[in-house]
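Notes from hallway chat w/ T.B., transcribed later so I don't forget. T.B. wanted the structure written out for a chain they're using in a teaching module, and asked if we could keep both sequence and structure tokens in one place. Agreed to drop them here.
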Amino acid sequence: MAADPTPKAAVLAVLIVAALAASPVASAPQAAAPSPDAPVLVKPGVASKRIAPTHAWHDGAATRALTVEPGLRADFSGGVVGRPVVLRSASGPLKDVSPALQSPVLRDESGRARALPGGVVVTFADATDEAAARALLAAHGAPAARPLSPRAWLVESPAGLASLELANRLAATGAFAGAQPNWWVERALK
């Protein structure tokens, strides 16, 4: 008996394409273009064309390059229910969100999106009591918010590049084991 010359998968694919072409979704009118301030979804780990790094941060002894993602801002205002951060299309600061609740979106060397909601995580070489930690942070112009552990403290800073600048300044002093921004980092779903 001769084998069927048409594989079943090919027939199934033709049937699916025909069904999709006939569906009301395929023939529905296109929606109007979203406004420039509307929230956008960005594919995880997909950076637009590569641009030379514009910023850096100190990750322990390593310096990590960062590139500002043009036309994209992180909105930390909580305006979208159930989403603590929304990446929005914008050519500059968002007009409907306080500057204290927004950040440019940066891409790290792997292409992952990062943003700066505010705050810097400072680590000490050894466990440090509260009075000593607060005194050392104050001596370096860093307002301590609260301890995260006996060796780590959250320091107050505004959202955006100001927190990156503060983290880099504190790391450069050599007085701390480390200082890095309190990053928001996009999740990569598996």
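Follow-up for T.B.: The chain is about 20% helix and 25% strand. Might be a good example for the class.
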